[in-house]
Amino acid sequence: MFPVRVISIVFAVGIGLAGCNEKKAEPKPPPFALTEEAIGNYCGMNVLEHPGPKGQVILKGHKDPIWFSSVRDTIAFTMLPDEPKDIGAIYVSDMAKTDNWDHPGESNWVDANDAVFVIGSRKRGGMGASEAVPFSQRSAAETFVARNGGAIVKFSELPQDYILGSNEAPDQATPEQETGGHGNH
């Protein structure tokens, strides 16, 4: 039988060696400030030219973010199979820290995983589509819903069909839909 002391030393060395094989978690890169040089990944236009909340995705090992003119486009990037999956961070405009829809701010970002989102509101995003409006504080999202309609969901609950589907919010009808598709002839 081995003395307890020898077993303790062998156990400690084993734990130490096991720790060498574990990958250290990379620290999350901080968000970048929005500047006039920010060009939307999908639209190819200056991000600042669009109203509503914006987004940025930072890929691991890349020094510059990928910019988006809307939060919906930002989240779509993470869902689309052909886009890179080595995501280091996803940041979206924190609409709890602004009251200006047209200019939501250059440095008020919130980690998308920590935000709550309002979907199906009357507000339209940067490209005129339905938007997923992000907030760092649930109370601010509730106030927004009271004024603009919609429902509050977490990042993990964002419906893929809302993000990748039609530009119409579920509760918004186009003039054709309102008239049964026949228009006013």
Question: How would you characterize this protein structure?
Answer:
By secondary structure, the protein is α+β, with helices and mostly antiparallel strands. The protein has one domain: Alpha-Beta Plaits (2-Layer Sandwich). The chain contains 5 helices and 7 strands. It has helices at 4-21, 71-79, 138-148, 160-164, 175-178; strands spanning 55-59, 66-68, 87-93, 109-111, 116-119, 133-135, 151-154. The strands form 2 sheets. Strands 2-1-3-4 form a 4-stranded antiparallel sheet, covered by helices on one side. The chain has a 3-stranded antiparallel sheet with strand order 6-5-7, with helices on one face. The protein is globular, with a radius of gyration of 22 Å. Mean pLDDT is 84; it is low at 6-18 and 169-185.
